[in-house]
Design a protein that fits this description.
The strands form three sheets. Strands 1, 4, 5, 6, 8, 9, 10, 11 and 12 form a nine-stranded mixed beta sheet that branches. A hairpin with a 5-residue loop joins strand 9 and strand 10. This protein is globular. The protein has helices at residues 33-43, 57-64, 93-96, 113-122, 162-170, 193-197, 210-219, 239-250, and strands at residues 2-7, 27-28, 31-32, 48-53, 73-78, 101-105, 108-110, 129-136, 144-147, 153-157, 180-189, 224-228, 233-235. It is α/β, with parallel strands linked by helices.
């Protein structure tokens, strides 16, 4: 298995913190966010890593080099046009080849053992992918994910509107008081995902959405396993989250 990390964005919600640094290079507990991700992936036995860079690409590339310091091999590719998460993985298509690959955004922190748990879940049966989720009773947070009794993907609703939430409740998808599952942004895919990213059309937001490709993959009768992330899951989206992480390390 290989790994692909999406680290091309600037992270505009970080304001002045990303004037000179791409968001994945902001430090948490003394190390860049991206370094935490790479060491976790390496701990799961994955040694071949492709990093999609963009904004301030040279900062990432010069820090990690060929990856030998972390006992991995790192290859880079630049996303020159920031047109969404759906097209970014395609930059790594040749690198991936016939191998399954773990895909993560470069600003999500989880416990290091999470990546190992994902590989284990992938190997439990013949799956075309693994989609990680976190649980909450607040249904307004992000991409809603629905599973069948075997915890296989049934439906994915990206950033549902108020009208969509009403419809989901009315149709029984969201029973009152039930835990809602949210897309946690870390995946494993077979290369078959590229058949679907290649066919993507821009969403109403004007971007190519990876979740549209996942929905199409599932609709094409490709089984996608769900996995709940245990313990910490942090989307390092803004300075407040970053500050909270630093307070946690000082405690």
């Amino acid at each position: 298995m290989k790994a692909v990390i999406l680290a091309a964005g600037k992270g505009t919600r970080m304001r002045e913190l990303t004037n000179e640094l791409p968001k994945p290079m902001l430090r948490v507990h003394g190390k860049p966010i991206l370094e935490h991700i790479i060491t976790g992936i390496a701990g799961a036995g994955i040694r071949e890593i492709f990093i999609v860079t963009g904004f301030k690409a040279e900062t990432i590339e010069s820090y990690f080099g060929d990856g030998s310091k972390w006992h991995v091999r790192i290859v880079y590719g630049r996303q020159l046009v920031q047109d969404g998460t759906g097209k970014a993985p395609e930059i790594a298509r040749e690198f991936v080849g016939p191998s399954p690959f773990l895909l993560t955004y470069g600003d999500i922190l989880v416990k290091p053992e999470t990546y190992q748990h994902m590989v284990h879940r992938y190997n439990e049966d013949y799956f075309s992918g693994v989609l990680t989720v976190t649980g909450s009773e607040d249904v307004t947070k992000g991409g809603l994910v629905f599973f069948d009794e075997k915890f296989l993907l049934k439906r994915l609703v990206e950033k549902p509107s108020a009208a969509q939430l009403d419809e989901l409740r009315r149709d029984g998808w969201l029973p009152a008081g039930a835990i809602a599952w949210y897309n946690a942004g870390i995946y494993i895919f077979r290369p078959s995902i590229f058949e679907y990213t290649a066919k993507l059309e821009k969403s109403p937001r004007g971007e190519y959405e990876l979740t549209d490709a996942i929905s199409a993959l599932q609709a094409g009768h490709h089984p996608i396993a769900g996995m709940k992330i245990e313990g910490r899951w942090v989307d390092v989206r803004d300075p407040e989250v970053l500050a909270a992480l630093e307070r946690e390390s000082a405690a």
